[in-house]
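So, is this right?
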Amino acid sequence: MSGSGRHDGRGRLGNTLSNLAVAVGCVLFLGGFAWGAVVYKPYTVPTDSMTPTVNAGDRVFAERVDGGDVRRGDVVVFTDSAWGDVPMVKRVVGVGGDKVACCDKDGRLTVNGKPVEEPYLRADGASSLIGADGKGAASPQDFTAEVPAGQLFVLGDERSTSMDSRVHLQDPGQGSVPRSAVEARVDAVAWPLNGMIGRPEAFAALPGGVSSEGPLPLQAGALLVGVVLILGGAAYGPLSARSARKAERPKASSGAR
């Protein structure tokens, strides 16, 4: 009797742990999914102006942010009537008060006179843009722009073809867009699975630094842990009950003799 009660108790404990794991897993999974749906919005990139960071047709996760939270180096989604009133994806290289210019003697972009290394630029494309020293240049044409307060100067990573702030240099604001036009900041390429889009180190040394990483890794972690707990908990309950039954059978057989 005591042995049977012990095994029954073990089975009940296993069932309780199984249910608890499934419940916690559901909370993490659904919570992570709901959190992600509130914070992030999916976009399909329409052109190849941001190659190779993101390519035409890529699906990206963009964090809903206020334009005031945008920093240099961020890849943003914005909509501005002067640009056709359609969502566009570009990289912010200058903020209000900055003087953005290209190119210095080494073919680099400068912000307030400081050269910016841009490792995200397309290597094969850059090789066709020759600077004064024979190295690849950050833009096929020289330009200078002073960014008004509350505005952002944006460029595509594919500098040879991107229709960006350089095309609008003669417009009011010298090609910049208002911070209020920003809808979201791109944090990751969801499909194909290219992972997170990091913050460029070159901009971190400038006043204001770079923006902090979004919560997407935490959300993905919650989803993954939730799935593991749900599957593990669902499997553990039956396995625990089966183990308890197996442990009971020898006792029963011994009693029959």
